[in-house]
Amino acid sequence: MSRIDETRQAYERLSALLDQEIRNKKGDAKKLERFRETLDVAFYLLGWAQFEYLVRCEAKDLIEAKAREKYLNGLAWSFVQANLKSVKIRQKLDIVFHGKEEVKNRLKGDYEVRNDAAHDNKKLPPEARDIVTWLKHLEDLVDNF
Amino acid sequence: MAQTDPKHRHVLVNLGDRYVVFGTSRPSPFDPNEVTQTPPRITDETEVAEARIIDTLQVSGFKRREISGGPDRGIDLVLEDDDGNKTLIVAKVSSRNPNSRDLERDAAELQSITSMHARAELWRFNVEQLGLFIEWIDKGALKHVKLSALDVFERTQTGLFGRTQVIERVDAWQRALDDLYNRVAAWIATRPHLQVDRTRSVTIAEELMQKFDVADRDAPILDVIDDRGVALSFVPRGIWIIGARGRVDLISRKSTHMIVLLDEDGSVDWHIVDGQDRRKTRPFIEEDLITFASES
């Protein structure tokens, strides 16, 4: 079980607890519902952070393997390997999901959502609000690395 | 001279992907159907807001004029009314309303620009909670007025989309929610050991509502009560959901079940989502209600 799967289970447990607080009238329903929205954003950011780490690791492994190739190709990848820290996450997504345009574009959209939520205090858009399904999707992507 | 009073103005601007009409009184003189320009779509409004505003700004009853010596003085545009009176405009963009420190600085800036020959105004656009604050100096003191967003719309490839459509969607969802609750109440009515209560509510404030300046809505929670307390709570969870036209969560003593509003060939109704596979749904029926209410 990866960390993302554990994160999903933690989210399910916590959101279930909060739901029971709402049902049992343990406080103002509006406030509890706002707490639930905050929980959603927190776990979205956590899920993305954990996924980003795994993408960075996978990209590093792929680049290392490519750098061992012969001739100019290997030389070019060696240069990338030497400057790995400056390769941005969007570029690492391009490397890890090369040839999977739909997956890549969706993840880049997810990254924008992550930035908006983390830095601009924006609400999660419709495509990001089912946290359980989204975390399962990330877990499936990682399993297929 | 009514045009000199900013309170009576109507201002149309593009804020990235959205057009907004600011003013204090309806109707708006700007017809969305006559706005034909479709600027390139962008991912982050805040990066281009100021440039877009200045490029696209229209004020009803005013013409835009060339800026002479403007850039050095921080002037972004010049407006001329029907009588030939000019107003120099400094535009600022923010994600909040001006505070007292902003107003102090603005007053100093306006003092340096205002001249005998032209009136100067500072326009602060709040692009998060849509609003336009127009400030000017009158007899040495800073005055200001807030223009609200009278209309918000965007031109898409399929046509116009705006606040009207957002409000229609919210209204339709509220009617469907009401219908669901009435149905549940009718099922409960035949069971004397159960009662319903709609006194609690949550606030629906979704991204699209904020984007098109539609006010937050209260949505009622439906509680089903037995002799031990609340057996079930129907909690509205959203309107814009991927693959559905709305979502309500049914919280029983044991777990939470998702109910979604689906449009199947024009027939809109509530369906319960399979707990193991969220792609599978089936119509929400009375038997489900009684089963969940009995959970302990």
Please tell me how large the radius of gyration of chain A is: 19 Å
Task: Give the uncertain stretches of chain A in residue-range form.
Answer: none
How far apart the termini of chain A lie comes to: 15 Å
Q: Report the portion of residues of chain A in β strands.
A: under 5%
Number of separate strands of chain A: 0
Strand content of chain B: 35-45%
Q: Number of helical runs of chain A?
A: 6
Uncertain parts of chain B: none
What value does the average pLDDT of chain B take? 89
| Main beta-sheet strand count, sense and barrel state of chain B | 10 strands, mixed
Helix content of chain B: 10-25%
* Coarse structural class of chain B: alpha+beta
Total beta strands of chain B: 19
Describe the structure.
- The complex is a heterodimer of chains A (about 140) and B (about 300).
- Chain A has about 140 residues and is mostly helical.
- Chain A has helices at about 5-25, 30-65, 70-80, 90-95, 100-120, 130-145.
- The longest helix of chain A is centred in the first third of the chain and has 39 residues, at about 30-65.
- In chain B, the strands form three sheets. In chain B, strands 1, 2, 3, 4, 5, 6, 7, 8, 9 and 10 form a ten-stranded mixed β-sheet that branches.
- Chain B is elongated and about 80 Å long.
- The model of chain B has no long low-confidence stretch (mean pLDDT about 90).
- The interface of A and B includes residues 34, 122 and 133 of A.
SSE order and pairing:
The complex is a heterodimer of chains A (about 140) and B (about 300).
Chain A: H1 3-23, H2 29-67, H3 71-82, H4 89-96, H5 101-119, H6 131-143
Chain B: E1 11-14, E2 19-23, H1 45-56, E3 58-59, E4 62-65, E5 77-81, E6 86-94, H2 100-113, E7 119-126, E8 131-138, E9 141-156, E10 159-162, H3 163-189, E11 195-197, E12 201-204, H4 207-211, E13 217-220, E14 222-226, E15 229-238, E16 247-251, E17 256-264, E18 267-273, E19 281-283, H5 286-293
Parallel strand pairs in B: 6-7
Antiparallel strand pairs in B: 1-2, 1-3, 2-9, 4-5, 5-6, 7-8, 8-9, 9-10, 11-14, 12-13, 14-15, 15-16, 16-17, 17-18, 18-19
